[in-house]
Amino acid sequence: MSKVMTKAEKLADAIVESDEFVAMVNAEEKIDSDQDASELVDQIEDLQKKIDKNKESEKLKKKMASLQKTMWQNEKIKSFMQKQQKFNKLMSKVHKRINQKLSPKASENNPK
């Protein structure tokens, strides 16, 4: 198991060093340093919690739609979200590759 954990740590290191991760972290830091952007993100997170508790509230949903529109107009938040999407695509590819490697082994060990 230690060999697997060592490889997992190397993969984590490679992910942290990837252009996608670095760009996402830098974009997040820009949001954190911008009071307007940071407050908008906080408002959205708070509102999402309220919506989770009261899924039927149309008033909350309309307010969320309005906040999301405002959010997409904020260049720092928009940039972060685009970079986060690229990072998520990378992670999806990593997950897919791992599954591809595991699938032949699984079928060899579990004959039908």
UniProtKB/TrEMBL annotation:
The name this protein goes by in its record:
Uncharacterized protein
Species: Halanaerobium saccharolyticum subsp. saccharolyticum DSM 6643
Instruction: Give a Pfam family name.
Output: Com_YlbF
Coiled-coil annotation reads 37-70
Keyword Coiled coil recorded: yes
Q: Which InterPro entries match?
A: Com_YlbF (IPR010368), YheA/YmcA-like_dom_sf (IPR023378)
Question: Which superkingdom?
Answer: Bacteria
Alphabetized SUPFAM superfamilies for the sequence: YheA/YmcA-like (SSF158622)
UniProt keywords, alphabetically: Coiled coil
